[in-house]
Amino acid sequence: MFRRVFIFGSTGSIGKKALEIIDTFHGDIEVFGLSAYSSIDCLVAQAIKYRVKVVVVPNLEAKELFHKKWTNKNLIPKILIGSESLVDMAYDSSYDTVIAAIVGIAGMPSALAAAKAGKRILLANKEVLVVAGDLFMQYVFTFKAELIPIDSEHNAIFQCLCGNENGIDFKKIENSINRILLTASGGPFRGYSLDSLQNVTPEKACSHPRWNMGPKISVDSSTMINKGFEVIETHWLFNIPTRKIEILIHPQSVIHSMVEYIDGSIIAQLSKPDMGIPISYALGFPIRTKNKVGFVDFTELRKLDFYQPDFIKFPCLSLAFDALKLGQAHCIVLNAANEVAVDAFLNENIRYTSISRIIDASINWYEQKIPYSLNNLDDILHLDRITRDFARKICHV
Ligand code: NAD
Ligand code: MG
């Protein structure tokens, strides 16, 4: 097995973890290219260490900064700029595997292109499936891309469905499944009262009890919209109807999800809560590879707890379920309004509890409009843009 990888979003939490795991493959995986939107210092250090051929940065200023910071005697990589270059690189045939680790809808065009290019795609960027699940999966099947989710729950479901085998037909598997039990840690505010959520700060929202993640997904996990996104993700990835997907709060985060079959058998995937495991599985699939994460000690763990999710305290969860039922336009609005609201919250422009209010108001705003027809990528991006304009306006009222 030899793979050549391009990491879209290499300076983020997933990107860095992916590089750590690549080190454990001892040369069987070569890093062909990297991309970053900020943290150019980090990108330069990564490009030097992995001797990459190409980097993609957002603009001319970032390109100049990259040049300035490149003090190494090695040949400087080709430096491309802008989101169009990410799409072009997705089609480049010099490598075979994409790690889609950009955060938000910004990662969608390049992920769609990677599917059209028939790559092996290690998908972290769940927003792609939230806003364009149908289109993305169509491309995956039509262009014979190989899709392996690395979101921990979906990687767990993937493992429960096909174990170590290659080639399960996910289009047909639904009939044998009774339920998917999507586990959730419950986030940092599981024990909080509804009232105390008013005073949550960005710092508190970003300190997740089990996972160390980028700021946007940390806030998404705390509002539980992340779990709502993951329901949508499960639906598209595995062709499972919403009625068969249940959320189960499991604070220890050791069971990463379970599949219950129609005969009453349940298969679960367990491991330490560390993204290194799904990434390692996906890079090596179908061969398992050693990594440095370590093993679960059941005597230390002693018990596993499970609870129902609280839809009153976490209204974003209901908003996501509703959006999935109502269709793609609602999911695009849900995602765009959430991205704007989370950004405003992280910049201390709105209160924590306003996040769900802004999403709700954006969905109501959309429902007053004539329904949108969404036939292509431009239609999706247009609805995303006008929703952001609306959501930004109400962030300032
Ligand atoms: P992060 O914020 O730590 O990193 C994001 C990366 O994307 C960075 O390299 C950044 O430079 C790049 N980026 C940001 N905005 C961009 C833009 N407009 N254009 C191009 N590149 C841009 O995020 P993360 O926590 O690594 O999460 C990445 C994705 O993986 C998200 O979709 C998240 O939901 C998903 N995910 C993350 C985790 C986790 O443990 N961190 C787990 C499951 C899924
Ligand atoms: Mg997850």
TrEMBL record:
Entry EC no(s): 1.1.1.267
Chain sites annotated for binding NADPH: T11, G12, S13, I14, N125, E127, G214
UniProt cross-references to InterPro entries, sorted A to Z: DXP_reductoisomerase (IPR003821), DXP_reductoisomerase_C (IPR013644), DXP_reductoisomerase_N (IPR013512), DXPR_C (IPR026877), DXPR_C_sf (IPR036169), NAD(P)-bd_dom_sf (IPR036291)
Keyword Hydrolase: no
Gene3D superfamilies: 1.10.1740.10, NAD(P)-binding Rossmann-like Domain
Gene Ontology terms for molecular function: 1-deoxy-D-xylulose-5-phosphate reductoisomerase activity; isomerase activity; manganese ion binding; NADPH binding
Alphabetic keyword roster: Isomerase, Isoprene biosynthesis, Magnesium, Manganese, Metal-binding, NADP, Oxidoreductase
Positions of Mn(2+) binding: D151, E153, E230
Annotated family: Belongs to the DXR family.
Name the UniProt record assigns to this protein: 1-deoxy-D-xylulose 5-phosphate reductoisomerase
Classification lineage: Bacteria, Pseudomonadati, Pseudomonadota, Betaproteobacteria, Candidatus Kinetoplastidibacterium
